Amino acid sequence: MQHSGVAQCISGEFTMKTGYSSKKCRDFFREYARVSHSIKKIFSEFSPVMKYVGIDEAFLNVSDIGMNPEHTADDIKKRIQHMTGLTCSIGIALLTR
After folding, report:
1. Which of 12, 36, 44, 97 is deepest in the core (most CB within 10 A)?
2. 32-41: per-residue pLDDT in tens?
3. What domain range is 16 assigned to?
């Protein structure tokens, strides 16, 4: 049984092979964009400094919020899962100036 919601992006090749209509693909994209917007709102709760690099990826600067970056990443992941039902991955890097 397949659950409802956005699980991943659908490629053009997949749509051709499976017979998905362009309307259904547009509906998937709308839902993907809606969830992406919800996740970006969650990001803004943790950092005002963000760089979006796609509909489903962003860089956040959390160096000035006074929390451990690993704990912040865990908090973000938990909030995303709680609010959307989706899991995510987060990478942490040292910001050098």
Report:
1. 36
2. 888 888 988 9
3. 12-84
